[in-house]
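Workshop exercise sheet. Pairs work together: one partner reads the sequence aloud, the other fills in the structure field after running the prediction. Swap roles for the next sheet.
Pair: D.N. / O.F.
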Amino acid sequence: MNTDIINPKVLAYIGDAVYEVMIRSYLLKIKTNDLNKLQTLKIKYVSAKNQALILDDLINNNLLNEEELQTVKRARNTKVSSKPKNTDIITYKKATALEALFGKLYLEEDLKRIEELKNIILNKGD
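Structure field:
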């Protein structure tokens, strides 16, 4: 699938779901059965603020290839039609860019790369 023609907001839409399930699955594997604890741990990875920090870390440590960087830049530069309530616009755009990256990889069925990024993200967060 040529994801270069898909609106970055649409990539982020699917990427948000992929990323959320990935994180929730990981948290369940660490064997906690406490919903409040799961929710608290989830925020460490899924909040816009933390997603923006994760993206910055991936970029600053040269962990994304050129094609992935292009997707991130395209998503980050997409016009936002509404202002988010709980975060500033720059943080929101970075979080959206991370989600768009996961959406692109998912739609391209690049599960190996999703797994690689997941391991990078989760190993830095532990």
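Discussion prompt: The CA atoms of residues 52 and 91 lie 6 Å apart. What would you look at next?
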